[in-house]
Design goal:
This protein is of the alpha+beta class. It folds into two domains: 89 residues; 174 residues, Histidine kinase-like ATPase, C-terminal domain (Heat Shock Protein 90, 2-Layer Sandwich). The protein has nine helices and seven strands. α1 runs antiparallel to α3, α4 runs antiparallel to α5 and α7 runs antiparallel to α9. The termini are far apart.
């Protein structure tokens, strides 16, 4: 038994050592082509004097290309942030939580509802856009210290966590998502949807890679089963945690806690 465990540890260690170079290669090989596609599509859209006028249908198709390229670039950046967090690399800084939340909402809504995202981007603050959000079934509450005071951490990693959890809630909701931010020392955030819920026996597995829930919850919903895995990896590196409260048929509530980085 001891030799078997030692062999398993050796295999796990080998996989871990191989992960870094493979990830570096993937990032390197994908960055260039995505940049070319993004630049080319943007040129077609913005330089009609050179390439000729576009029909409305052609414009919509180019906008769709650009949205999906941005999504792919976002996923690539998320891989980079997870890799950096595993190495203990953080870009420490102070930032308003409301601002990071708004950016996260915009990122997700650009995929789910581009017209709403455009309206939200014109708002000066999240408070100003609250009526618009509520019209679309998105309710945001901010209380506690970070309602006024900035939070100290790596804003890219916090934004990535918020973006993934909001995207998850938007995928599975029926009509409503509630986001609640609180905390006096640690930052506490919850995302709650009114979807079909998660059976108790499946709640531990949802944080594993490539795991997706049963078909009755997944039908027609895209995804690879990596978002929550990345969120958990980031939170563990940030000394935080994530929990889920749900039952089948009652929606799901994901709660996260992030300690601030020390000032020194």
């Amino acid at each position: 038994m001891g030799k078997l465990l030692e062999k398993e540890k050796t295999i796990d260690s080998k996989r871990a050592s191989e992960k870094g170079p493979l990830l570096d290669l993937l990032i390197h090989d994908l960055t260039g082509p995505l940049s070319v596609v993004s630049t080319s599509a943007a040129s077609l859209s913005q330089r009609e004097s050179r390439y000729g006028p576009l029909t409305d249908q052609q414009k919509r198709l180019i906008e769709r290309i650009l949205r999906n390229v941005r999504k792919a670039q976002t996923l690539l950046n998320e891989m980079i942030e997870i890799s950096r967090s595993e190495e203990g690399l953080f870009q420490k800084g102070f930032f308003p939580i409301e601002e990071i939340l708004k950016e996260s909402l915009l990122d997700v809504l650009e995929i789910h509802d581009p017209q709403m995202a455009e309206k939200l981007s014109g708002a000066k603050s999240l408070g100003e856009s609250r009526p618009l959000l509520e019209t679309h079934g998105i309710f945001v509450t901010i209380t506690g210290k970070y309602c006024q005071s900035p939070f100290c951490h790596d804003h890219k990693k916090v934004q990535q966590i918020l973006r993934n959890l909001f995207s998850n809630a938007m995928k599975y909701r029926r009509s409503r998502v509630e986001v609640c931010i609180s905390g006096e020392i640690d930052l506490c955030i919850s995302f709650e949807d009114d979807g079909v819920g998660i059976p108790v026996e499946e709640q531990e597995a949802i944080f594993d890679r490539f795991v997706r829930l049963k078909e009755k919850r997944n039908t027609g919903i895209p995804g690879l089963g990596l978002g929550l895995t990345g969120v958990k990896a980031l939170l563990e590196a940030m000394r935080g945690d994530i929990t889920v409260a749900s039952r089948e048929g009652t929606g799901a509530r994901f709660m996260i806690r992030i300690p601030p980085l020390p000032l020194q």
